[in-house]
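Page 47, continued from p. 46.
Same chain as before, 409 aa.
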Amino acid sequence: MSRTTQLLTVSRVKFLIKNGKPGRYPDGGNLYLDITESGYARWLFRYTSPVKGNRREPTLGSFEAFSLSDARKEAREWRGKIERGIDPLIERKAKKAQDLRTVDDLWESYAKLRVKQILTQRKEQALYEQKIRPFFGDWPIADVRAIDVSSLFHEITSGRRKFKATANKTLRLLKNLFDHGIKLGVIDFSPAGSFKLSDAGGTEKPRNRALKDEEISRLFRAMRHAGAAVSRENYLTVFLLLALGVRKMELLKAEWKDIDLSRGVWLLQAEKNKMRLDVGIPLEPEIIAIFRELKVFSAGSRFVFPARLRRRGQQRFQHVGPDTLNRALEKVDHELEHFVVHDFRRTCRSVLSRLGVRPDIAERYINHKVDVYDVHDFFEERRSAQRQWLDVLWPLAGFDEDENLSAVG
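Result:
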């Protein structure tokens, strides 16, 4: 006796999704409701390709995008195409390929796949906007050749400063991007496929640059004498990066709702930091005073560092962008050995060691996870470490002579 498939109902679909039990639930006619281990619900269509003869199980769409009736309608259309000798998956990929004409189009398609990886996606977005889009973003995908990729690397690594790390990151992104195009059937080979790191930026040496006390003092003195080239906000930003040991974009994307000046705590939320953990950052009186001054500069914005350029169509971020501080520091005639903004973080960590702060506390101070089983946040110990560091850094930054802040220190 043959077994008949029990058709799904709207109420049963809702129950299955709410229950969240992983599995495939048939609706007949090759259509299945698939619930993954993570609880994601989607519609699958199982069939044998009339073109290639292999079994296929493509996703028709998510439950959010397709109701039960929508999924049944889509399945009927697919069955009709199969009866006519058409493989609907090949047809769908061909249609997607027609819609992707330029490298920018390919990037938009690729970026949608990366949206859940928030931090990585933002870094890739910035890299694409800064390096790849200006070079051949509006080119037809098939027109990009290996020689064009090589020219891009040459542009990145030529000049006074050779951005080896940037060239290597660009190569990795290009490989992922064009591999995505191959999977979609847009191109048959990747123009970046034959390149190795040695063809881009080459071997990267680990950085070990940390500023000495005298260098910190010279840097702040040079910034004070730089005039309009370095704004007061940029001056305070450099100080906070050194004092708090946070990553640049963690600070520049900070929002006032996460900063409690009355309690002296900045809650750096998990989705806004690399470690993906909520962390409370202690704020000593000097830091609070600086944030109060920045509150005035922010002029009602939800961001501590709101975007300063307001030209319509040219503002990529609502907060200060990733290049603003870098460009400001390039204009400062400090005559120091070359450093990058991230070296402020290493400087902070190095000084904490010099001051005798326990290694595990120092690592927690800069939001490094030391032991996955230790969930204690050492908040008071980190506050004590900040106090020690500020006693050194405050006069180096010239704040003991600053009319706005000297009374605080």
